[in-house]
Amino acid sequence: MSSPSAVPHTFPAPIGGVPFNQDFAPSILFAFLYAIITIIGFYRLARSSSRCLMFIGTLAFVFERIVIYGLRAHQAHDPSERASDSLTVYWQMTYSIGYVSILADIITILRSFLVNSTYPPNDVPVYSRNDGSDSSLLVGNAADTSYISLDRPQDDQPRARFWFRRICGFLALSTWISIILGTVSGLHYVKAETNANQVSLVQSLRYACTSLVFIQVLIVQVLSLWAFFCVARLRRSAALILFIIATLLNIVSVYRLVVMRLQTPALVSTGPSSLNDPASKVTFYVFQAAPEWIAAAILVSINVRQTYGTGMWGDFRSTDKKS
Prior knowledge:
Keywords: Membrane, Transmembrane, Transmembrane helix
Shape: elongated
Transmembrane segments: 24-45, 52-71, 91-110, 167-190, 210-232, 239-262, 282-302
Largest sheet: 2 strands, antiparallel
Helix content: 55-70%
CATH topology: Rhopdopsin 7-helix transmembrane proteins
Number of helices: 9
Distance between the termini: 89 Å
Order of helices and strands: EHHHHHHHEHH
CATH class: Mainly Alpha
Structural class: mainly alpha
Number of strands: 2
């Protein structure tokens, strides 16, 4: 009497799949597109009117994406590299936490943006006007339809300023939890390929990381919409830009949450649940690669310093400077 066949070992399918020949062209394309953003970023840093550190994390993300898509192009042409443990760990880590760099930057920008709205119009903080820019970039007026047309309180709002700093500060710190979860899940990914005991751990860490990022971005979306509709003395178009960037980031989170349930029996499998079939590759480039690039391009292309009144450093105080 024959013994029952063993259940085949499966593990979480790799996000982005393993680069095959069809990945060469899109990898080269995205490496080129990110190189363009790099040029724009250096232009922003070279000009004193747009120089600030509020998008430095995004610029680092852009450099990293040039590297990763260059490596994907190389791996697509070299079959011997497709099962590389080190590259597999790198892919799964960077796809989990790379776009958190953009999230961290827009949280910092949102903090300065909201804090600026709590000062009287004639008492805008020094950091937001030290480049000689017009304070009307920050404070609305009745003739400018790009600003929200609600009653504009003229008094100082230290309590609101306190809570804006606390909320955005908490969000900024929580991004490190996402980074740690994504890093650990990536480091354990290759172990799950051969060890069934690691599968549930990797899957749990992936879901925890992406779910947390989704919630963090959702809070940024809510705050941006709230600023758009309810906060007087702020430019509506600036709030809308933050909401758009956050929405692009959450497209990535939703995509990841949808596909992370899939499991594969082998890293280079091309089965329907392997994320290596052509349809899955197209989905990856449309719902993760493209939104990441668009979000980075928007943030680097705008003049963050003038649009959001960040100055070089933004709002870095935990409390107001005492008289």
